[in-house]
Design brief:
- There is one protein chain.
- By secondary structure, the protein is mainly β.
- The chain is built from 1 helix and 13 strands.
- The chain has 2 domains: 82 residues, E3 ubiquitin-protein ligase SopA (Pectate Lyase C-like, 3 Solenoid), CATH 2.160.20.80; 109 residues, 3 Solenoid (Pectate Lyase C-like).
- The strands form 3 sheets. The chain has a 7-stranded parallel sheet with strand order 1-3-6-9-11-12-13, with no helix packed on it. A 4-stranded parallel sheet has the order 2-5-8-10, with no helix packed on it.
Length: 203
């Protein structure tokens, strides 16, 4: 894997098997680029705008993508590790008409105030993340992994959580009458929160 540089602006340049280290693209725009099997390590894209760009089989490691904009960009089998993605609106991205599974993987990431409203997130991973205030309403999280994730203030409503794995997840407030929870996995004592949402008394 060779080390590459990336400049802001427009262009149709394609990158494959490239390593990008410590890029500083804060507040800048990157337009119409394609990245395949690339690694972004220690990069700062705070407030950057990724326009109509494509990322396939890429990984972001220890990067800051807080408040990044994603108009028309697409992601296929992309992983984020130990990265900060505060306030990212994922609904801005271009999602395939064919609903694929496992498009995104987050591990040890900050996803505070991120928006996943109505997205198809089947079998996506959110492992040991901080997802405070994240919006998962109307999303399809069938078979998703949310193990060890802090979901303080996260929004669930009309969400399909069939077979989702919430073991060791915490601080969630999920109403069983407003979401699909068939075969979802929970661990105690955190699972007691499901009962608290049912307006019943526990003694």
């Amino acid at each position: 894997m060779r080390t590459e540089t990336l400049t802001a602006g427009t262009g149709e340049k394609e990158f494959s098997d490239a390593l990008f280290e410590r890029l500083d693209l804060r507040g800048k725009s990157v337009t119409s680029r394609q990245f395949h099997s690339c690694v972004f390590r220690g990069c700062d894209l705070t407030g950057a705008c990724l326009v109509r760009s494509r990322f396939t089989s890429c990984s972001f490691e220890s990067c800051n993508l807080s408040l990044v904009k994603l108009p028309g960009s697409s992601f296929g089998s992309v992983s984020f590790r130990s990265s900060k993605l505060t306030g990212v609106n994922w609904t801005e991205a271009a999602w395939p008409r064919i609903k694929l599974s496992g498009q995104l993987s987050f591990e040890d990431c900050v996803l505070t105030d991120s928006v996943f409203l109505g997205l198809h997130l089947r079998e996506n991973s959110f492992l040991n993340c901080l997802a405070k205030g994240a919006d998962f309403r109307e999303a399809d999280l069938t078979g998703a992994l949310l193990r060890g994730t802090d979901l303080s203030g996260a929004l669930f409503g009309g969400t399909d959580l069939t077979g989702a794995d919430f073991r060791q997840a915490r601080n969630y407030a999920i109403r069983p009458d407003e979401n699909k929870l068939k075969n979802a996995l929970f661990s105690v004592p955190e699972a007691m929160a499901l009962l608290y949402c049912m307006d019943i008394k526990i003694s």
